[in-house]
């Protein structure tokens, strides 16, 4: 078996990383890759979080000290699970937020209408 160069990214690990997307700065520090720190730049971060999600696995593989692909995937599986859970929770909270304020606005609008209930 020939030894793989760490500059070469195995095909098995390429793909989306929810941990790098949702926890970009923390994930970057934890994986010894510091490009996610660019998420601290306002406005630029709106694009860079997607770059982190897409390129995260490759960056972590190149900077990490993993003995094989399986150990790498095991570590990133935990990040992916946490990131996906956070993303789903975030979307649910945003939906709840809009529904809550839509209900309040509707309630206030109807209570000021003199023809409501007539």
Would you kindly provide a written description of the structure presented here, covering whatever features stand out?
This protein is an all-alpha fold and 118 residues long. It has a domain at 11-84. The protein has helices at residues 18-22, 24-30, 45-63, 69-111. The longest helix is centred in the C-terminal third of the chain and has 43 residues, at 69-111. The chain is elongated and about 70 Å long.
Key terms:
mainly alpha, 4 helices, single chain
End-to-end separation: 83 Å
In oligomeric terms, what are we looking at?
A: single chain
Count of DSSP E strands? 0
Please report which band the strand proportion falls in: under 5%, 5-15%, 15-25%, 25-35%, 35-45% or over 45%.
under 5%
**Cα Rg:** 22 Å
Low-pLDDT stretches are none
Structural class: mainly alpha
Compose a concise summary of this entry.
The chain has 118 residues and is an all-alpha fold. It has 4 helices and no strands.
What's the structural blueprint in terms of helices and strands?
Elements: H1 18-22, H2 24-30, H3 45-63, H4 69-111
């Amino acid at each position: 078996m020939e030894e793989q160069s760490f500059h070469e990214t195995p095909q098995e690990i390429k793909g989306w990383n929810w941990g790098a997307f949702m926890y970009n700065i923390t994930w970057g520090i934890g994986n010894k890759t510091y490009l996610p720190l660019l998420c601290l730049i306002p406005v630029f971060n709106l694009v860079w979080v997607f770059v982190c999600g897409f390129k995260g696995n490759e960056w972590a593989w190149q900077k990490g000290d993993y003995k094989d692909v399986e150990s790498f995937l095991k570590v990133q599986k935990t990040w992916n699970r946490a990131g996906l859970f956070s993303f789903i929770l975030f979307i649910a909270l945003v939906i709840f937020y809009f529904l809550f304020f839509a209900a309040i606005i509707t309630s206030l609008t109807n209570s000021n209408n003199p023809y409501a209930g007539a």
